[in-house]
Amino acid sequence: MHPFSFTKATDTREALNAGRQGGRYIAGGTTLVDLMRETVERPETLVDISDLPLREVSVTERGGLRIGALVSMTETAAHPKVRALFPLVSEALELSASAQLRNMATIGGNIMQRTRCTYFRDVTADCNKREPGSGCAALHGFNRMHAILGTSESCVATHASDVAVAFAALEATVHLLGPDGERRVPFADFLLRPGNTPNQEQNIRRGELITAVEIPALPRPLKSGYLKVRDRQSYEFALTSAAVALHVRGGVIREAKVAAGGVGTVPWKLPAVERHLIGERPSDALWTAAAEQAAGGARPLENNRFKVALLKRTVERQLRVVGGTK
User: Fold this and answer.
1) pTM, rounded to two decimals
2) Of 150, 188, 271, 285, which is most buried with the most CB atoms under 10 A?
């Protein structure tokens, strides 16, 4: 680990001043500290923001949900309003990590986490995300865990967060505060696809601080859930996952929100699946037909071709769990 300076912010203004000068924000530290140990990250200054007043979970005036950036994963998952309004968020969090990590990690830190790609974390390997212009070792290396959607010739790494898949499905908004004031970014625009600049991972400006993630109000009743498929039942990253929320009224699907994880360079919204569902009556045949749309545009690699079929089966299964069968 390289030498660094450390400061603790006592209020938001102090944190923003330190961030403007190049300090890196840290709260739970469950990702950044690991990367520093591996010398992937070498920040000169860490700014501890754990004392900032960003720890509230509240229902918005319209019936949505606002989650403070410093609320832990454990606190968020267990919060009665989260469980009542958007259970898929609770399920995604509880399937994300060990209890010890969930107790430490925050919502803001979770969506800011960097990829678990082994080549990214191996400083001897070529990685455009870590060192722009060096190449991507995963393209022709062992790429079983890598992405099949949203990839480029520069990067095929997946985004590891489970709750980010839920936020993508529910069309959440990220609240930011920076030197230029407050800013709101749709979740779909917050995490960036790699393109030719895989080192630019989030739509966040120098010195900006995540203050909250807001989930908009959705029609009721709303049934939702999260399914994670992995190599082992204990803590492991997803091969595929599916976040599904359905509003059914009068026997017809009026609203559908679907996203997938483990297969994309960012949490992958599935609008083609959603369009196939809206206006239809729940049935086994519908779930199968809709799930067939899930892998459109997929570009599998040598070792992860199985993800195309697995993604379809994962989406179909979760549609059936949330929507029921007839």
Assistant:
1) 0.96
2) 150
